[in-house]
Design brief:
It contains 9 helices and 13 strands. Strand 5, helix 4 and strand 6 form a beta-alpha-beta unit. By secondary structure, it is an alpha/beta fold. The chain starts with a strand and ends in a 7-residue tail after the last helix. The protein is globular. The chain has a domain of 228 residues: NAD(P)-binding Rossmann-like Domain (Rossmann fold), CATH 3.40.50.720. It binds nicotinamide-adenine-dinucleotide. The site of nicotinamide-adenine-dinucleotide (NAD) has 31 residues, from helix 1, strand 2, helix 3 and strand 5.
Length: 327
């Protein structure tokens, strides 16, 4: 297949590039680096079946030659990122989705939209099943992301119903792993960075709010299986193993062997109280469920963050060193 992956230089997108290349496909990565990083795809740039197109997908993209699949993953994804970039987030969810659907239609390609558990908002039902329509505040600060993704889902279904496009929607729940940014503001990188630096771990609210964390390799496997299936409705992918944020902070302290204390700060606006996917549909349709044990996944992620911090420290030391002196 010739596969277009928007947001291919991001955390999830770069792992998808790796996977499709490993499976023998050709990958066209489209990214404007608003939140992605060149380091994520550095190891691929010389690959004969990999191509990077630096482009803002909120503007139309014309490609020569056939395309077999379009996976639309471009979007700021962490709350810090979409609060910093509210209008690009709305644009890439609306115009970017329109442009990628147009590309898939022109090429007769299958299409997969990266949606999110955020479409459920601050949910009134727990765990969340795909039939639940959600509880979203359209004018709240997080509305820029949640509503962009809800619109993206509606547009994807319209292309499926009216143009007969072979579309897929994956509702991704919190995913973690190597290539997350240490400074992206989400709980896991925050806690790991704070623990590794010996700083206090910041828990928002009383820490009783819950999250569930899925390891990146498990998510990628689910996405690949979904892409090959003819099923247009949304499918939750995530890890149903729920943990309170306070317990999670303690787990990270133990794992890192850090002496960091835990401090509490006020809850951000519209922060969801609970989040846990019901993955019965993915189990049934895809014969899928997360396989990576949390401690194993966290250990791999921690090793990656340790390397990032060591590189940062090395760079800082290099900048401080007088000319000609190698620290
Ligand atoms: N990480 C998660 O836990 C999670 C959960 C739910 C949904 N998702 C979805 O998965 C996708 C990827 O998330 P991620 O965690 O890898 O985030 P990320 O920020 O690491 O990656 C997003 C990528 O999209 C690129 N991008 C953004 N706007 C663009 C534009 N207009 N044109 C071209 N490129 C653009 C960024 O530069 C970045 O490389 C997003 O659509 C996100 O909404 C992620």
């Amino acid at each position: 297949m010739r596969v277009v992956i928007t947001g291919g230089a991001g955390f999830i997108g770069s792992h998808l590039c790796d996977r499709f290349l490993a499976d023998g496909h050709e990958v066209i990565c489209v990214d404007n680096f608003i939140t992605g990083r060149r380091e994520n795809i550095e190891h691929l740039t010389a690959h004969p079946r990999f191509q990077l197109i630096e482009h803002n997908i909120s503007h139309p993209l014309h490609l020569d030659g056939p395309v077999d699949a379009v996976l639309h993953f471009a979007s700021p994804a962490s709350p810090g990122d979409y609060l910093r970039h509210p209008i690009p987030t709305l644009k890439v969810g609306s115009l970017g989705t329109h442009n990628t659907l147009g590309l898939a239609k022109a090429k007769g390609a299958r299409y997969l939209l990266a949606s999110t558990s955020e479409v459920y908002g601050d949910p009134e039902v727990h765990p969340q099943r795909e039939e639940y329509w959600g509880h979203v505040n359209p004018i709240g600060v997080r509305g820029v992301y949640d509503e962009a993704k809800r619109f993206a889902e509606a547009l994807t279904m319209a292309y499926h119903r009216y143009h007969g496009l072979n579309t897929h929607i994956v509702r991704i729940f919190n995913t973690y792993g190597p290539r997350m940014r240490l400074d992206d503001g989400r709980a896991l990188p925050n806690f790991m960075a704070q623990a590794l630096r010996g700083d206090p771990l910041t828990v928002y609210g009383d820490g009783s709010q819950t999250r569930s964390f899925c390891y990146i390799d498990d998510l990628v496997e689910g996405i690949v299986r979904l892409l090959h299936l003819d099923y247009a409705g949304p499918v939750n992918l995530g890890n149903p193993n729920e943990v309170s944020i306070l317990d999670f902070a303690k787990e990270i302290i133990e794992l890192t062997g850090s002496q960091s204390p835990i401090v509490f700060a006020p809850l951000p606006e519209d922060d969801p109280r609970v989040r846990r996917p019901d993955i019965s549909l993915a189990r049934k349709l895809l014969n899928w469920e997360p396989r990576t044990d949390r401690r194993e996944g966290l250990a791999r992620t921690l090793a990656y963050f340790r390397r990032c911090l060591a590189q940062q420290t090395g760079r800082a030391a290099n900048q401080r060193a007088p000319e000609g002196v190698v620290p």
